[in-house]
Amino acid sequence: MMDHPTPELIFLACSISETLNLTPLQHLSLYERGLRNTEFFSDTIVDSSGKLAVVTCYNGKLKFVVLKEGKYSSDFDVR
Predict the structure, then answer these.
(1) What DSSP state is assigned to residue 37?
(2) Residue 11 phi, psi (nearest 5)
(3) pTM above 0.85, yes or no
(4) Where are the domains of the chain?
(5) DSSP, res 47
(6) 12: pLDDT confidence band, cut at 50, 70 and 90?
(7) What are the residues facing 14 on neighbouring strands?
(8) Interval 45-71 mean pLDDT
(9) Phi, psi of 72 (to 5 degrees)
(10) Which contacts (CB < 8 Å, 24+ apart) does range 57-66 have?
(11) Residue 9 in contact with residue 28, Cβ under 8 Å?
(12) Tens digit of pLDDT for each residue in 39-56?
């Protein structure tokens, strides 16, 4: 997750040959006008099944990200 002032979630693919290669697959903007930046916790938590991630970077707002086979599928907000 990239932090403020323009927060976004970046999904990366990892491949290993002679070196480690990270390739961006998806960018999900988290930017919201008028919301207050969180002061104490700005992070992503993925559940143990790997099917759902919760992202927070604003006070009073959570973004749920649905994952399918470890890749972005959809997202929705909860306030």
Answers:
(1) B
(2) -95, 130
(3) no
(4) 8-78
(5) -
(6) very high
(7) 22
(8) 92
(9) -60, 135
(10) 57/1, 57/3, 57/4, 57/7, 57/30, 58/30, 58/32, 59/35, 60/35, 60/36, 61/32, 61/35, 63/9, 63/30, 65/9, 65/28
(11) yes
(12) 778 889 999 999 999 999
Task: Enter the tokens of residue 26.
Answer: 């998806």
Alpha-carbon distances of 29 from 2, 9, 18, rounded to whole Å: 9, 6, 32
Residue at 78: amino acid letter = V
Amino acid at 79: R
Q: Is pLDDT above 90 for 1?
A: no
Residue with tokens 């990892």: 14
b/e burial code for range 47-73 (CB count within 10 A of at least 16 → b): eeeeeebebbbbeebebebebeeeebe
Spatial distance between the Cα atoms of 68 and 41, rounded to a whole number of angstroms: 26
Polymer length in residues for the chain: 79
d(CA 45, CA 62): 11
